[in-house]
Amino acid sequence: MSALVWSLPAVPLVTGAALVSAGRRGDRAAPVAGVSAAALSLGLAIAAAFVRPSAMAPFIAGAPAGLAVDGLSAVMVVTVTAVTFAVLVYSVGEFGPEEARARFFGLMLLFAGSMLVTVTATTLPLLLMAWEVMGATSYALIGFWWREPRRVDAATTAFLTTRAGDLGLYIAAGAALAGTGTLVLDQLPQASSGWRHVIAAGVVVAALGKSAQLPFSFWLSRAMEGPSPVSALLHSATMVAAGAYLLLRLQPLLAATGWAGPLVAWAGAVTALVLGAIAIAQPDLKQLLAASTCAQIGFMVLAAGAAGVGGGVAHLVGHAATKSLLFLVAGVWLATLGAKDLERLRGAGHRLPRVGAAFTAGGLALAGLAPLSLWATKDAVLTSVWAEDSALYVVALVAALLSAVYSAKAITIVWRRSGDVEETSRDATETSGAVGGWRAAPLPVLAVIAAVLGVYAVPAVAEAFAELIGSPATEPAGWQLLLSAVLALAAVLGTITVVRRGVRLPSRAQVTLASWLGLERAAHLLLVRPAFALAHALARFDDRVVDRGVDIAADAVHKAARLADLRAEHPIDAVVGAVAGAFRGLGRLARRPQTGQLHAYYAQAAALFAVLAVILVLVR
Amino acid sequence: MLSLVIFLPLAAALILGAVPRMTGTVVRVAWVTVSAVDVALVVWLWIGYDAGEGIGHETDLQWIPSVDSGYHVGVDGLSLPLLALTAVLFLACAVYPAPEGGRFRVYAALFLFLESVSLGLFAALDLILFFVFFDLSIVGMYFVIAVWGHGERGRAALKFFLYTFLGSLALLVAFIGLFLAADPHTFDMVELSRQNPLARGGTTAGLVLLALGTGLAVKTPTVPFHTWLPPAHTDAPAAGSAILAGVLLKMGTYGFVRIAMPMLPDTWRRYAWIIVLVGLVSVLYGALVALAQENFKRMVAYTSVNHMGYIVLAVGAAGVLARGDAQARELAVTGAVTQMVSHGLITGGLFLIAGVLYDRRRTYEMGEYGGLAGQAPMLSGLTAVAAFASLGLPGFSGFIAEFQIFTGGLATATVATALAVLGILITAGLFLRAYQRIFLGTGDTAFADLTVAESAAIAPLLVMALIIGIFPRFLLDVIEPASRTVVELVAR
What we know:
With 620 residues, chain A is mainly α. Chain A has helices at 2-22, 30-51, 71-94, 101-120, 124-142, 149-180, 193-210, 218-222, 228-234, 240-249, 251-257, 260-281, 285-305, 309-336, 348-351, 353-367, 373-388, 390-414, 437-440, 442-452, 459-469, 478-501, 507-514, 519-591, 598-619, and strands at 54-60, 63-68. Chain B is built from 21 helices and two strands.
């Protein structure tokens, strides 16, 4: 059945690549092609979930490319394709004919297709490939409106931040080869002890980066510059979910190191807590939802660290449905009411009641209210945490309360009657007031899913789910379900009262939290600026020292040549000239006696003989 | 057969040079046809070569018997990919529009001459033959830059010539050293690799490797011998830059795997750490200096220093035997050879793209551009592909190369490789920044999109990078046995 597992990602990837390369010529066909490819992928994913195909192909030496759909992957592929399908259906209504629809649908399919490879890959090279392609397509999607520099800047921030984390996976791959001799994911926990730590560290960094956990969270705030459907997909079943998936998949590796499990658990819990607080302070709905994504992914990361894989995966699925719904509603409001500031969204619920109802369902699920999905799944996570560390449990419980607070805050505001929502569309992609059929279609379906997944609270369901994904059952304990339900309800009611009275956070806390703790500025100050300063310093060094040195050396040779010419060549030539002159003089002297007159020769001969005779006499 | 591949372009060059008064079209058709035939012949060589057989398509004739130097050529898994790359890149240059500077017939003849020289170098199995081709490549490229370049072309060409010629003299010294150490004296590469003439090491062996390494490092180039590269690239015509980066630089890196590693294994192992360090410095230094550039072509030139640094790092790591098994070292060498091919295709494409920019606006300064994506969607699309390919995005050949280098290198040169990984983050930053400045944002002045000839030259290079990136087996099947041989030779 290897054809099935290859075609599952191939359908969106190939369609997506074709649409992107078609450019503007593909705009007319793009919505139909995009939605049908997404539908086909959903069908293939469901088939794969039952058939459980796997395949292996040679790739690089010692590291084949493997794809397989096991229980965990089955859950993931169905989630990914279902959310993609819903978001693309919505997108048909979002993008008018004047937009680059082929590029949009193509990139979305590439994005989803790489997520499908990520969650089915059984070997590291293939996982890393898909992981990075997903990052690159997220760049192209966030910067979709490329004429506006702030959107492209946001895209660059997202790509570079996540890629900085991805470096961890490159190192993990090298360590895996050194430690296990293979790059198969299942083998990683068996790596020899030294390399095992390197692998785990690399994986953890990459996953935290992708999942926008602390301290990487800021890129997700900027990612809001992309079109609404991009946020809906990026925040739910792809990209940020990939980090959580990787940690859940490699939970045995984390456990095998001893330190990685607790570290990851704390990273997740602290992110859930801090980003929950940040979400409360956001004046902008999309920013509130973004911070909430970090916080909710924090619960999944916490689950991976606390060996609660079943609860973590269930939370991922419930959150994917909930968050895609909420972002799509935010998109509807942005497009029809032209507003994403919470203040300007006052009363939005009344203007579009059915959309408002869908938002409320999603918001209440996000708040963790019983009996909706995230209430049950989050408590499953908390139960496994309780078994590990009670301090961690308290932190996570407070974080859960915060999610009730920010959700309730958003819901309360959109249902308040007082304000008038202006019709201006400062940031609207289009201004048609009516909610088209395409846009409205996915909302009720997602709302129902977000609600009914609460059945996870039924122990039999949780056990069946755990069996499906092949991990120990982590059904939530009864008292914890009750406790969190009561706490969430109290928090929701309390928030409604507080928001209605117009109580605000203290201004300093508000400013700090609203700016996401200034994490992006810190990254700029501590990393980007020094990197640029170093680059410029080295470039100057290159020009003024290295290259100049070469030039000086060449000049020195030239000067030496001149010097040789003046100091050596000329004197030597002068000596040669002098010698020649001397011989010329001697020659002239020697010519003197050659007079051609016989008497002169006799006289010379006589003189010479006289000299010879004198010498003979003296020497003898 | 192999000799036909090597000398077919030269024959065409002689005919082009001898026959006066040919129209530009005739020259173009002849040039493209000969290059295309040569590509087809290389493909035929590839099909007829069995990766397990070692050296194939061999010819060994006497040339200068007094020093046992012969016309010895052949192909194996190290040279065949580079022969193919050479033929493909020269075909792309034949298709690409000629620069101003006239004398198109001479230009074509010179490129055909360079093609023969480059093919001959990669096929050479004799040091003297290698040296002759090495020097002729310098001469040919000198004229390409000096006559058809722009800006300070005379100065750049002279610097290129003198610097790389000096490097080649160092090579000659090393070759003579190897000749003298061999018993019986020979310049034959196969024989020298078998003999391992300087196995006892000592000062002589160290000096020979120093001369060899310096000569190859100049050509590669590695830091600190790289400063001829940016001016040469900036002032060369587009096709000249593509050949310079795509083919001529590979002569340096090829020399490491073909000559230095097999012939001086003990010395290579002893000084492997220095080579790793030179590679690491080139990776980081090249990337950082590229990040600071304002001139697009200079930036791409510095990324070449970065990309060549990965190769040097990998071949150095393959000499570190202390840790890691042979599998990791083979992976590093395979990655190095893959990187040579990959860099040739991608950077060749990038330089041709830079030529398009210069053709339209007469400048490479990134600040002079902006918002081109609106006016030139094809150019923007291809540049986006080339930029992402060059920053090592999976799905393109650069990833296959760098992934193997990192994965293989980490086992032996752990710290250096872990630091070198930072290079792909810096290149990502610089390419995104450059792309944003030139193509994104708003711009209103007219800019003509790619012509048919331009896209026909650039697109196939990137398509090949894509094919290698997704289906690398056809390439790796050829390289892997050869890198296994190299690793075994180094380890003896």
